[in-house]
Each structure stands twice: as structure tokens, then as C-alpha cells.
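Researcher: Structure for this, please.
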Amino acid sequence: MPKKTFNRLDCEKKERVIRAAIEEFQIHGFEKAKIEAIAKNAGVAKGSIYQYFDDKKDLFLYSVTWSLEYFMENIDRQTPLKDMDVYDYFLTGSRERFELIKKEPLLVAFSVDVNSGKYGSLTKETNDALNRIGEEYELKLIANGKKKGTVRADLDDRALLLFFQGVTEKFTMKIVEIARNFEFEPTDDLYCEMESYLKNMVSLLKNGMGR
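Model: Predicted structure, C-alpha cell format:
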């Protein structure tokens, strides 16, 4: 976790530090990544990095969660989480997801490598952190659905979460597959194909979770 000194920075400077860290980790891997290079590319003193984070590992783990939260926050700006249930999540924002893939190739590449286990001994810790954030978000979607009357209230949230994750796993894999091609340019035909796929998946979700 970042120290209080990092949290006191303005948003622009925080982002500059984390993007510099992600670029260094992505190019050189965790072991060979240099704090000096991160500091230089972020435009801060090397000692400042250690005022912001305990060590390189702490900075790496925060960079991983920052990337996921960055994508989630961008999608949430288009369709506020408070207004979404699990079905809305897939039926809205699909184009925003593709636009983010085009706009943020470095973050996508970093996220893909983290998920694929590129960072070896850190894989379990990164996966635990990502799963925690993802599950918190998905449980909110389920709770929203119960409030709206679109998700079954007679089933436990955790059971619904397991079903939701099982149904959507292939979708996530498809997005990762697309993301691996950083020169990828989505076409209108592909948007239509993916939106049709999403609608079919939502139908499956509604059959299992809906009221």
C-alpha cells in the first residue's frame, strides 16, 4: 500500500509515477526493473519513490491494482455503478471497453501479463489483490440487481457470484485474446458480433440468476 506521502500528491503526479512504474515493469520485468528509471521517467527524485512506497514490490502490487481500478473507473464514468446490475454491466459499456483497449495498450499489456502469470513468484499476491477488487465490484452489481428486482433474492450473494464468474469466464478470456494484439482496431462488424455475444450471455445469466 502507498504511504501517506503518496496519497497527498495531486492526481496527475500520482498517475505519472504509476505509469512510469508500469512501463518499467512491463519492459524489464519485476526483477530487472530499476527504481532509478521509474523515478527519472516520472520526473521525481529516486528517494521520493521510497517516500511513497516501502519497496519495489509494494510499488509493483499497487501498480497492478491501480491498472484494474483505472479501467473500472473509466467504464463507471460512462454507466455509473449505482445504476447497474449484472446484466447492465455487459449490455452497456462494451464499446468503451474496446476503446480503452485501443487507448491504453501499455496498461492492457501489463494487465494481460499479470493475469497470465508472467511475474512468477508474485502471481499469487497479484491474483489475490485483483480477485478481491473484482469480487467487491461484482457483489455490488449483484446487490444492485436484488434491489432492482432483476436478480433472485432467494439465493446467497456468494453463490450468485460463483455462477456469474463461471458464465463470464469465457468472455473475459475473449477480451484478453483481443487485448494481446496491441494494433487491434475494432470494426463496426466486430462491435455487432460482440454485442450479440453479450446479449446471448446475458440471456444465460438471466435464466440462472433472474427472477
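Researcher: Any notable elements?
Model: The mean pLDDT is 85. The longest helix spans residues 123-148.
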